[in-house]
Please model this.
Amino acid sequence: MSNSASARHQAPDDLDALVIGAGPSGVVAARVMAESGYRVRVLEQGDWPNVADYPSTKLERELIQAGPWNPNPNVRRGPSDYPVNDSDSDIHTFMFNGVGGSTVMFGAEWPRMIPSDFRVKSLDGVAGDWPLTYEDLQPYYEMIDEMLGVSGLGGNTAYPPGAAPPQPALPIGRIGRIAARGMNKLGYQWWPGTHAILSQADGSRPACSRWATCVAGCPEGAKSSFDVSMWPAALAAGVQLTTGARVREITVSQQGLATGATWIDRDGAEHHTSAPLVVVCANGVGTPRLLQLSTSSRFPDGLANSSGYVGHNLMMHPTATVLGCYEDDLQSWLGPIGQPIWSMQFAETDTTRGFRRGSKWTIAGIPGPAELIQRIYSLPLSERSGMTGQEFAERFTGRAFEWVAQIEDLPEFDNTVTLDPDLVDSDGIPAPKLRYKMSEESARALDWHIDRLTEVHLESGAVFTHRVDYMPEVGWHLLGTARCGDDPATSVVNGYGQSHDVPNLYIFDGSVFATSSAVNPTSTIAAFALRGAEHLVENAAEQRIPL
Amino acid sequence: MTTPLTTSPFTDQERSGADRLADLWFPGTARSPRMTELPDYVPLLGRGLAANDELASAFREIAVLASQAPEVTVETVATWPQDVVEGAFMLLLCTYYMSRDVRTAIGYPGQDRVPVANADPDQLVTDELLAPVIARGATYVPTPGRDR
Model:
């Protein structure tokens, strides 16, 4: 039994479901359930983002992004944030705690996983297969695209046939055209970017205005941060949202079913919200942390953890970039910042390269001279400053872009999220501790891809290239710590996000990923949540109700 | 937070060191102005300092060292704590390129609203550009479902 006796119980919670986390998976699940007649409440530790706070349009943008608007919670240290002990991790976590979750700060690249991503074990003999297929998820990818207003060009040769994105693709820009020419010379696959960004106005939301400051918060509302693209519909469907609510524990009954959650408000007061269904959507670090905090005599090793897999197999997508500088005016300060064109040429396994699985490539513009000089950070300061630095900015501002390789990270059991024995958040709750070591195979993949990225820049006409072999500061994708699978002995949830151990507990965020794919995960997170929530609703009559 | 300052945001010592760092790192070129000669140098630096407390702290620390050194050169700076130096440089770098004069000099318009509806033809994909990709056909590996 949980230790929630001291919690301040409100009037009986007349709910059908409690969702923890107001990011993409949380709001998708809440909306689906509410539109099906469920009474749903969402607890979110952060606040509503305020466009006026975004650094996007401010002169000091880069400085604010380096501090109070940094995607790393350890740097940002906002009142909504919890610290993450990443001293034993090769990659630092990025996340945003607020309504809309990390989509408030994401670049809105919107690729899907490829079919083989779901069959890694069968095809390559590594990791494990997902308990669902691309074909299972495809209709949900398409539904999410419609809900958000995704832009892109149909017919991408990297994917099976299907519906085209509902909105036309964004301009690929001059950087896209010059990059595409280089790719064509080498005979490589590429495609105009698919984005969770409107290319045409939709209702009250305008089309993209190419600020290229997507990750600093879209000043237009064109980007599908889920606070603007999904939450209005969820609220209209009747979802109750409580912000400033930091969940400390999921409570359970003597029968081993979830009964709700204990949470702490901004004034430090403790509350308990009861519900017959609990859905956890707290990201690949927050979710295992919460499950491990939720111990009881029945679940001494953490909730839903009979397999011992909660918190294991953390995957984070090692990333490397190559900056290419050109003589032509490429207007490379224009958005979208990420993925004007992208490539899945090397996403599938070819073991002659020296590693299994692959990488997603994308180009990214450089919004301004300060960011351009930051890209050559690994050079001695004397080569980035003085007349040398100034002349570099004069010559290449607007004439440079990056090729980025995002490596498929295979699950390693010893890459973990655990509870730190000492570090706590502002409410005294143990903070997560990461142990993440990039595998030798991932390191080989990075080296291989960086060489290829350099080649394509040179083929496109770059006159200067600069490689960043590995970027520790890009831990956007937090995956794998409550993996899905058919076997309860080696997974935490099934293919619909339902806990093997606790049948009225669901998990829909990136922690369910059995493998990481090479692509950005949010479209898959949202599609998985949509499929899981629909399944939950359609099978409600068969679910056990806690007592 | 972003209101331009009308008075110096520095102590005299910090200002002295800031000027020396600005002259070292942004001495000006044939095209770009010298940082200390920007008409809005002091208010811009005030905005930069107000935007990021940690970098401002690093900058002040290095500025004090710079004010005390007999001469501020690349070699001198290399003897100071490098993580703090990098913080100070980051602050000065971002602040320098906040200047309208500097942006004009290097032809950078700044981040601004450029609607997609106004995209020029040379910013768009063409059938000709995509034709080789389509001609090569599908690249994905088809997979059967687990029950198929």
In short: Chain B touches chain A through 65 residues (CB under 8 Å). Helices of chain B lie at 12-25, 41-51, 53-68, 74-78, 82-96, 100-106, 127-136. The radius of gyration of chain B is 24 Å.
